[in-house]
Write a structure and sequence with these properties.
The chain is an alpha+beta fold. The protein folds into two domains: about 90 residues, Gyrase A, domain 2 (2-Layer Sandwich); about 80 residues, Heterotetrameric sarcosine oxidase (Alpha-Beta Plaits, 2-Layer Sandwich). Helix content is about 25%, strand content about 35%. The strands form two sheets. A six-stranded antiparallel sheet has the order 1-2-8-11-10-9, covered by helices on one side. A five-stranded antiparallel sheet has the order 4-5-6-3-7, with helices on one face. Helix 3 packs across helix 4. The longest helix is centred in the last third of the chain and has 15 residues. The chain is globular. The model has no long low-confidence stretch (mean pLDDT about 95).
């Protein structure tokens, strides 16, 4: 029998938390992620399935919805869906069953990693990290931007709180960029 211990994207047994001058970078390993993409000719039916799963309207271009589940738009008729891992470990499987062939659903939990940046100086940090106009983003706005040569999603959840989603395989590089920008900006 194997004795396996789960680790975070940064290789720890618990989330990495870094704070500098009032800004905190927190690794968020406890989320389940799944991509949800309508199949050709099935966009209305797929949107209806996602709407039911979310318990809210499907997010539009550049937007996120936080309800029963969280989802944000990633492309035409495509969304990334997020939920607490403890209660939704089978998120992708559950969505695929609900979709019943009208959408392609792919497990993304181990493909993406999430870091939360929060604090009074978070906008100054983000200005060093990416070209996204984060100052003009409203709550639940989402954009795709390059951070440290990595394709990332930036989601604003509050005035001083952003979620950064990046490739899990590059979690160490992304974390280094986030913490370096915190030290450089503040």
């Amino acid at each position: 029998m194997h004795d396996l211990t789960p680790i975070t994207a940064l290789g720890g047994t618990s989330a990495q938390v870094d704070t500098h001058v009032g800004v905190t970078c927190r690794e968020v390993p406890d989320v389940a992620l799944a991509s949800f993409a309508a199949r050709l000719g099935s966009a209305p039916a797929a949107a209806a399935v996602l709407k039911k799963a979310l318990g809210a309207a499907v997010p539009d271009v550049g937007k996120a919805v936080r309800a029963t589940l969280t989802a944000f738009w990633t492309g035409p008729d495509q969304w990334l869906v997020e939920a607490p891992f403890d209660t939704h470990e089978t998120l992708a499987l559950d969505l695929a069953k609900a979709a019943n062939g009208v959408a392609s659903v792919t497990e993304q939990t181990d493909a993406w990693t999430r870091f939360d940046l929060s604090g009074d100086g978070v906008l100054a940090v983000l200005e060093l990290l990416c070209s996204a106009n984060t100052r003009s983003m409203a709550t639940d706005d989402v954009t795709r931007s390059s951070i440290h040569h990595l394709g990332c999603f930036v989601r604003r959840t509050d005035d001083d709180h952003f979620c950064i989603y990046g490739p899990r395989a590059s979690a160490g590089s992304l974390h280094h960029a986030l913490v370096t920008a915190m030290h450089a900006a503040l």
